[in-house]
Design brief:
This protein is mostly beta strands and about 650 residues long. Helices cover about 10% and strands about 35% of the residues. It contains 7 helices and 34 strands. The protein is elongated.
Length: about 650
């Protein structure tokens, strides 16, 4: 028996093999506990052969005696007197007040011996005086159910009688077994208003299939309902089907399905900003006054850019059109263009009267409506959105169970140098595999992309009947697209509008290869200890340093298929001024070497769809750490 105080349940397991299977939601199924353990009247009787002849004999000194227990040796197993008397009544060996039963609400009694049990109903239980077996006592007499009788052949002394039955309430809402996964979910409650194609979010603790237990890691993933819900009012449950199976497995306990899901985008609305007054002069320009202009993913079929501006500009109340350039525009074309400087300042620029019209004169007649806010600052963690600026009737609260994704900062000059040739070569269309990668990098939130033609199975090396383009991607916040189907669907739509739909395309999330590094650094006596140690940590940091430069293990620096070499790590350490000597005591791949904390690999090979990643989270060492320990040398600087 297992007691779960937290859940308020008790689980009972019996040793007998499985018998009849019952529906736990049926009202006819009942479970009883026996609170009284008794014996039959007479089980404590004195030994028959120890009684005087006056009680058990037939003759004494040649004279007839006819004792009351003559010919009834209850200790002889072959004699009927050694068994509980058959009949509609059962006498217990004492008075038991806890035993109850009526014809309307009968109780139960189980007569057990040698591992076998006989069940009978109890329709009455009362105290009576009983004399037999050379003893007399006040005992409880059980009246059995109509047509029932004490079974024969039950030994008087060995039979144990279990009675005083108490009906226990069965848990009629037992959870389904772990884990939770697949495309069919059973919900506790009735939810008939769910609709096909409705977006939902599953939130719960992840399930570890190896350990066969729930983890403390919270998982969240989006999904879409494939069909109307199946409502079972009798059992108060609703079954829903997802379009795609869940990407991961979850523990059922605590898992919830969120259905009132809407998509929101980053950016605060600036409703009506006065940019200035037109004066009819050429190339008038007006800077936006409220910060970074928000750009959203483009939904236009023929748009070359992957993003579209939220800026709306009016002159004298008439909307003018934004163009990438005013070259080719006529003198009457009511259009403008924008420029962006290194500080993130957006400026609206009008035409000169030849290439684009100049805004007419008027006081405060140039106005703008836009949203402000841009970049990775919008990639807030789960739970980062908790309230709306404007209240809505009937809306009690809001929450963001998933981290937001898709926000990307403006490219640096170095990134422009790398990405510009590809974007110019693709020019908004994907033909070659390289074009697919270049086009994906123009989509907001995608920071790494690699594409290749898949012509053979990587496991069997057999040629595919129809080769396909395999596009591997990484998002800015490293949230897999598989966990964010809304973004994945928008990206797929963006790519499909700009490629040959007859070419099969498979989009994959990159696979992280978690790396663990530890080393000891000796410092040149001419250099400060802690400062040199900090420089080594910065050189290897798995992220960006304060000055924006990436460390050797930074996700921002490493690329798909870039292997980690022991010699390269040594080179990065020795490039730091003041390092006299370094000893790498651990360089391991966690999925292969987790059990060997002293493993030092010469090379960690990374496949084209993988990236070496060091999470460097003290609470999750299984995803890799960078540990730099100070050895000897150097002078004290703290």
């Amino acid at each position: 028996m297992e007691i779960d105080k937290a859940a308020g349940t008790t689980t009972v397991t019996w040793a007998e093999p499985d018998g009849t299977t019952f529906d736990q939601t049926s009202r006819e199924v009942a479970l009883y506990a026996f609170r009284v353990k008794a014996g039959a009247f007479g089980n404590k009787a004195p030994r028959w052969d120890a009684l005087p002849l006056t009680l058990i004999g037939t003759t004494q000194q040649g004279q007839p005696v006819n004792g009351p227990y003559a010919n009834r040796p209850w200790d002889d197993p072959d004699n009927a007197a050694s068994r509980i008397p058959e009949g509609p009544y059962l006498f217990l060996d004492a008075v038991y007040d806890a035993v109850r039963g009526t014809p309307q609400i009968p109780g139960w009694a189980a007569l057990t011996t040698d591992g076998r049990a006989s069940l009978v109903h109890v329709t009455d239980a009362r105290a009576v005086s009983k004399a037999d077996y050379a003893i007399s006592a006040k005992v409880t007499r059980l009246t059995l159910g109509a047509g029932e009788a004490v079974p024969g052949a039950l030994p008087l002394r060995e039979t144990v009688i279990l009675t005083g039955s108490e009906r226990l309430r069965l848990h009629d809402e037992l959870p389904l077994p772990d884990p939770l996964g697949g495309s069919t979910l059973v919900l506790a409650g009735l939810f008939p208003h769910l609709q096909p194609a409705q977006p939902v979010i599953l939130h719960g603790n992840l399930w570890d299939p190896v350990a066969g237990a729930a983890t403390t890691i919270v998982g969240v993933e989006s999904a879409t309902l494939a069909a109307p819900p199946s409502v079972d009012a009798a059992n108060a449950i609703t079954t829903v089907t997802l379009k795609q199976p869940l990407a991961r497995q979850y523990a059922r306990a605590g898992a919830v399905l969120l259905a009132n899901v809407v998509t929101v985008t980053h950016g605060e609305t600036v409703a009506d900003e006065v940019l200035g007054s037109g004066d009819g002069t050429a190339l008038q320009s007006f800077p936006l006054k409220r910060g970074s202009l928000t750009y959203l993913p483009s939904t236009a079929l023929e748009a070359v850019a992957a993003v579209t501006s939220t800026l709306l500009v009016t002159v004298n109340g008439v909307r003018w059109t934004e163009q990438p350039t005013l070259v080719g525009s006529g003198p009457e074309t009511q259009a403008f263009t924008t420029t962006l400087d290194e500080a993130g300042q957006t400026t609206v620029v009008f035409g000169d009267g030849f290439a684009g019209a100049a805004p007419p004169s008027g006081k405060d007649n140039v106005r703008a409506r836009y949203r402000k806010g841009l970049g990775t600052s919008g990639n807030v963690p789960a739970g980062g959105v908790e309230q709306l600026i404007d209240s809505l009737p009937g809306l009690q609260k809001v929450t963001s169970p998933q981290p937001s994704s898709g926000g990307a900062d403006a490219e640096t000059v170095a990134q422009i140098r790398v990405n510009a040739p590809g974007s110019v070569r693709a020019f908004g269309r994907a033909v070659s595999a390289e074009d697919y990668a270049a086009l994906a990098l123009t989509y907001p939130g995608i920071v790494k992309a690699g594409a290749m033609w898949a012509t053979r199975s990587p496991t069997t090396l057999q040629a595919f009947a129809q080769p396909y383009v395999q596009l591997t991607l990484a998002t800015a916040n490293r949230v897999p697209l598989a966990e964010n189907p809304v973004v994945a669907a928008a990206l797929r739509s963006f790519l499909d509008k700009r490629r040959d739909p007859n070419v099969p395309l498979r989009i994959l999330d990159f696979t992280p290869v978690h790396v663990d590094v530890a080393l000891t650094v000796d410092v040149d006596d001419r250099f400060p200890r802690q400062a040199t140690l900090a420089e080594v940590q910065a050189a290897l940091r798995p992220g960006l340093n304060a000055d924006g430069t990436p460390g050797y293990f930074a996700f921002e620096r490493l690329q798909f298929g870039e292997s980690i070499h022991l010699s390269a790590v040594y080179a990065a350490v020795h490039a730091v001024a003041g390092v006299r000597e370094a000893t790498i005591t651990r360089l391991r791949r966690m999925d292969l070497d987790a059990g060997d904390p002293t493993k030092v690999r010469d090379d960690i090979f990374v496949q084209p769809t993988e990236i070496a990643v060091i999470q460097d989270d003290p609470t999750d060492p299984a995803r890799g750490r960078v540990a730099v320990v100070l050895g000897g040398g150097g002078f004290v600087d703290t």
